[in-house]
């Protein structure tokens, strides 16, 4: 089947699905739950509440085959130049593979280098935790300030929030925003003598990161002897010479075949490896590697990342639903929606195909979310009763805390998915009003306001506990999902040119500020705003 034929069948089955109700599909297809659920690397996915019919589900699988998902997956793991605009391999799976793997980037063996960097990270992390690596005055490090932005921040931040102990031996704080308030909050209460600063920047030229690193350096310089300053600065970069020139005593490398938003498995998460303990970090890598193994080996119809991607494609392109909400029912996963915003929207928010021609279909939807049950008291009103249908994704942890009953938390997640699917008819709403003692007239008046159309899709991703292994599997699941969507949409998921234009223009605006005012070629609105802000 050609791609054009597959898309034609996809469109037809999507139109048919749009005219049916999800809840009625269970009676029409008794095997629906078994067919549309899968277990992988400690996670259970239930996609049976999605809008697709049995025929739509099969059409999505045919579209994946016609798009050569399996072939492109093989190219990714073989280290071919799947990032074609920059001529780079994309090998984040190499970063979490067991020692002794044999990954190659454009034919160059890289696994031995990965193993060596990982071994150096472990040695350093263990030394900091034991006190063998100490600060300028010989005192043990008690806090780490992680300075980065984007992929150099969100990945490690989601890992720390998910896995941090309640009373950590080493306090880890993150600074990303160029607003000085962010750094001021991070440094408050810390002792320069016991604070380690980890600066993460692939090029060591990122404006926000360098500005924050300079602020941290000034804070340390005011309190520490000059000869010991370098012990307090660690660089994580692909430009070690620039990090050394800045004042980093040690650097840990990562290569250009690691995209920023896919880099948490590398030295980018060194601060987590130190603060959590190396065994925790290594277990997270193992969980991600288990998901890699599943993604590579499972058939399409039983492949968790592929099915998760197909559900999104069906909603976005088949049913014109340009947004998705993610609600993690675990406080420790509160950063997950932010992480997914960058992972998915930076990867797949593209307007041209791989050959440069404009896309003719929708690509990445808007991604937003909050942890449950917080979101239920915010935007869930819209996803239940708003005119737009917004597919929902519930990430559910059966046991989030050792000493608390969990059913009130996960029962809310189950109820939300059920309510989205079933809804409530106007007749049922009126009967409910009468049962509450309302008059016939009042019950009829309120019934439309209490009506839920239902037939709104959701996916549940379930784990028994949030462990390093299941966290690694979950994040890798979403990485591979994002890749599969890019293959089906025929776009490059691994460049991010949209991030660059604003950076270039910001530098030009700063030149105008330094020159005393807007240049003649600046547009009137921007010039007026600059003049106002300069006072």
TrEMBL record:
InterPro entries for the chain: G6P_Isomerase, G6P_Isomerase_C, Phosphoglucose_isomerase_CS, SIS_dom_sf, SIS_PGI_1, SIS_PGI_2
Q: Which SUPFAM superfamilies match?
A: SIS domain
Compartments in which it is found:
Cytoplasm
- Family matches, as Pfam families: PGI
| Single Gene Ontology MF annotation | glucose-6-phosphate isomerase activity
Which pathway does this polypeptide act in?
Carbohydrate biosynthesis; gluconeogenesis; Carbohydrate degradation; glycolysis; D-glyceraldehyde 3-phosphate and glycerone phosphate from D-glucose: step 2/4
For this entry, list what GO says about its biological process.
gluconeogenesis; glucose 6-phosphate metabolic process; glycolytic process
As recorded in UniProt, its EC number(s) are 5.3.1.9
- On whether Isomerase is a keyword of this UniProt record, the answer is yes
What are the annotated GO cellular component locations?
A: cytosol
Q: Which residues cross the membrane?
A: none
Using the record for this protein, list the coiled-coil segments as residue ranges, or answer none: none
Q: Which domain of life is it from?
A: Bacteria
What sort of enzyme, by top EC class, is this?
A: isomerase
User: Member of which family?
Assistant: Belongs to the GPI family.
Name of the protein described by the UniProt record:
Glucose-6-phosphate isomerase
What gene does this protein come from? pgi
